[in-house]
Batch of 2 targets.
Target 1
Amino acid sequence: MGAGASVHQAVKKGKSVYTDIHCHVIWGVDDGAETEEETRQMLRAAAEDGISTLIATPHVTPGVYRFPEDVFQEHYAAAEDYIRQEGLGITMHQGAEILYTDITPRLLQEGKVRTLAGSRYALIEFSPTDSWDHISGALQKVFRAGFIPVIAHMERYPAVKGLDQVRELKRKYQALVQINARTLTRKIPLLRRRFFDGLFTGELVDFIATDTHAMPGRETCMREGMTAIGKKYGEETARRLAARPEIILDNGGR
Ligand SMILES: [Fe+2]
């Protein structure tokens, strides 16, 4: 039984067990955790927040910044040791949050940029000022390179503002949509509210993730976000979103 199946069963039994596909929990590699103690604190908080599986997704910018791979591997191993020692019950996987650059599709194909947990799913980030043409073109190239793009915190990109646009990205490039849990715990600006409601009621959202960076400040809030979704869009929607990361874990899971 894979990790995905166990999450699914727990969710079906009504237990709040979550998979976080986007977080910056490994210290010293990006603007996430800064110290080993901060990583430990974030892992304890994740366990308390009901997270049983997480994918560590440090920022990478292919061809622009060199990613400190050695440091990442060393700190990742230390974090895994800590999870075991403390019995936190978290299964951790490696991933990356990829700020799209022209070289990204090629490096993905060459295995030089990490996907989510070794799967075909790649977490792709854009700048909030990127145009629709840039975003759409980038997702097309990632898809054509043989990967399924997961749009990181899609709510941050004003260029993607219509439900038809989201449907188009899904239809043409199989793009999947990730929204940050924290966004759901805050008041959605009036102008974006209808778009948001349409995303959830139209089942256009695929993943809720924490994108947790640091404590305090941008700490984990998965349960709070999922509770807000349950209240606003129904428990079935919250359950569907909690189980959805299975498609990634079943496809990679390492
Ligand atoms: Fe992030």
Note: The beta strands are 18-23, 51-56, 59-60, 91-94, 97-99, 121-125, 148-151, 176-180, 207-209.
Target 2
Amino acid sequence: MSDKDKQPLAASASTQSEAESADAALRHIVDGFLHFHHDVFPQQEELFKKLATAQSPRAMFIACADSRIVPELITQSAPGDLFVTRNVGNVVPPYGQMNGGVSTAIEYAVLALGVQHIIICGHSDCGAMRAVLNPDSLEKMPTVKAWLRHAEVAKTMVHENCNCANENESMHVLTEENVIAQLQHLRTHPSVASRMANGHLFIHGWVYNIETSEIKAYDADKGCFLPLDGSHPIPVATPKARF
Ligand SMILES: [Zn+2]
């Protein structure tokens, strides 16, 4: 098996030239599919046969829709391993405010699939976080503006509690605070709250750095983000079980 075949996701992540035409963009995607269908799929046929009628993912992964974040690639997961939901800003609306796609996916992952972990993953250079800091940029995008109200609490947190020296620092703190805010929203979902309370579900808040590939994870006990570097216990955002 060549390195290319071992990492089909990496193989498709070529750099897109600025002048790429619509035809060329589509051709690239279809060529990628044909490579997968003819060369990659046959090598993993057993796995796909097993997955054809059932799934039992290790975790639910809630990430930003940003094209540079590929949950399966950065966690080296295979098909069937992660139940992924992605949206602008890795947002989780609080329960009862909006019975949309994210809430539906959470309920399904917890109650139907029985996942034991939910990971909310933000990232560096997030366009959604930049827009939260500069709301004027959203004047012509009323839907994005309305959606990002779910990140408003993080913005207030930064403005009122952090003497950030520049926009880069504000972005860094806002991105972490947004992950913490979405973890709090996640806990308002009854299915999540109940299984966390009886010790069957664990929640995690991560921030992925696109430039370095490092991840920092929120440690709820210590109240800070710590590197996920394999040399320390894995930081978790789950409070103690009560039942
Ligand atoms: Zn983003």
Note: The first strand starts at residue 59 and ends at 64.
